[in-house]
Amino acid sequence: MGSTPLSCCLHYKVHQTPIAILKGSKDNVQLTCNHTIQNYNTILWYQQSTGDTAMKLIGFAFYKSITMEKSFEKHFNVSGDGSKEAYLHLVSLRSPEDSAVYYCAASQHSDVENLLSSTKTLADRKL
Question: Which of 7, 13, 84, 124 is the most core-located residue (most Cβ within 10 A)?
Fold first, then answer.
């Protein structure tokens, strides 16, 4: 009873490397995110631009299926497996657009498309 609510989850880890990086324009960068959370199958990548409080979703890996946001498709790439390790590739850095803080997160993603395709509409009325 003396433990805090978070003590149950402290052994779950999400790691992002490198923790800091300094590169020039037109350089390529790869960030790595891995986790050890059982049944978590998605790694998401976010960008927080300098001076902005909002985080923008870049893309995510749901298992080995990759989804990219349209506005990031030209200069960013996500690869890997969301159940363990995924990568964010920044291709040919642009200044100052790509100068930002990048975050990764692990999540347990539900397959909404399959869920919706398996629903049943009851329309068995007698006229």
Answer: 84
**What is the reported pLDDT for 11?**
64
Q: Are 76 and 117 in contact (CB under 8 A)?
A: no
Give residue 54's domain range.
13-109
Distance CA 12, CA 116 (A): 31
Helix then strand then coil, % of the chain, to nearest 5 = 10, 40, 50
This prediction's pTM: 0.77
Q: Residue 102: inside a domain, yes or no?
A: yes
Copy the structure tokens of residue 97. Answer: 């657009």
